[in-house]
Amino acid sequence: MLRVKTGISGFDELINGGFPKGNLVLLSGLTGSGKTIFATQYLVNGVKQYNERGLLISFEQIREDIIDQSNELGWDLLKLEKEKKLKVVTYTPNKMIFSAVLQEIKALIQEFKPDRIVLDSISTYGIYAETIAYIEILEKMGMQKSQFSFQLGPEVATRKAIVDMLEALKNQKATSIIISELPESTNFLSRDTISEFLCDGVVLLKHVSIGDSLNRNLEVRKMRKTDIRGGPRTYNITAKGIVIEAGG
Ligand SMILES: Nc1ncnc2c1ncn2[C@@H]1O[C@H](COP(=O)(O)OP(=O)(O)OP(=O)(O)O)[C@@H](O)[C@H]1O
Ligand SMILES: [Mg+2]
Description:
Layout lengths: L2 E2 L14 E2 L3 E6 L5 H16 L3 E5 L4 H10 L4 H6 L3 E5 L4 H18 L3 E5 L1 H19 L4 H4 L5 H17 L4 E7 L13 H4 L2 E10 L2 E11 L9 E6 L2 E4 L4
Helix pairs in contact: 5-7
The structure holds adenosine-5'-triphosphate and magnesium ion (MG).
C-alpha cells in the first residue's frame, strides 16, 4: 500500500504513515478551524518534501487572498507555480463558468497531471449548483409547466453536481482532499450529508472556546485500508501552519 504523506507534524502517524494513494479524503470542519491551511500545507509539503505536483481548486476565496494567506505562513505559492509544481485555480459564482467547470477541471487534471488535489470546498460548489438550478427554474417560469416538470429540482441538482465532481476526482490518480463545511450542530460529517459516504476518508476539525482559550481538536473518523489511531488530538495553528500535539 503506497502512502501519501501530508508532512503535517503529528498527523501521518495517526493513519499508518499517510493517506492511501489515490484516495479521496474529506476534510470537514467548522468555519475558521483551519481547513484551508491544512489543505494548502498538504500541497506545499507535497512539492517541497516529496516532489509531488499539487492542484488547488478553490470556490471559496479569490486568488489574491489565497496567495496572501499562504505568504503569511511562509509559503510562496507563486514561486511554486513558476516552477510548474503547483497550480491554483479559482472560480466565482457565474453561470457561464459553472456549466463548464467540471469539464474544465477534468481537462486541467489530464494536462497538469497533479499528484495531489485540493478542492475548497465541496459545500460552496454545491451551493453554486443549487443557486444555478433555482435560476434555471425561474427562467423557465414563462413556459408551460409540463415543459419544466422533468427538470431537476435544486436539491437534486446539488447532489448530482457533488456526486459528479467526486466521481471525477476519484477516477484519476491523484490523492485528493475535499474540504467541507461543518455546521455548528449536526450529526452528519459534512454540510451536504453525502460527501462523507462518497469519500474514502474523513478528517474532522473542531474548536471549542474554554474560558479565554480556544481548544482545537482533530479526529480521523474514517480512512479506508488504514488502522486509525483514533480519538481526538489537540492541534494548533502556528506561524508555520498546523501542528498536532503529540499524544494530545
Ligand atoms: N499565523 C497564524 N497564527 C495562528 N493562527 C492563525 C494564523 N493564520 C491563521 N490562523 C488561524 O486560522 C484560521 C483560519 O484558517 P483557515 O482559513 O484555514 O480556516 P477554514 O477552516 O478554511 O475557514 P473557512 O470555513 O472560513 O474557510 C483563523 O481563524 C485563525 O484562527
Ligand atoms: Mg477555508
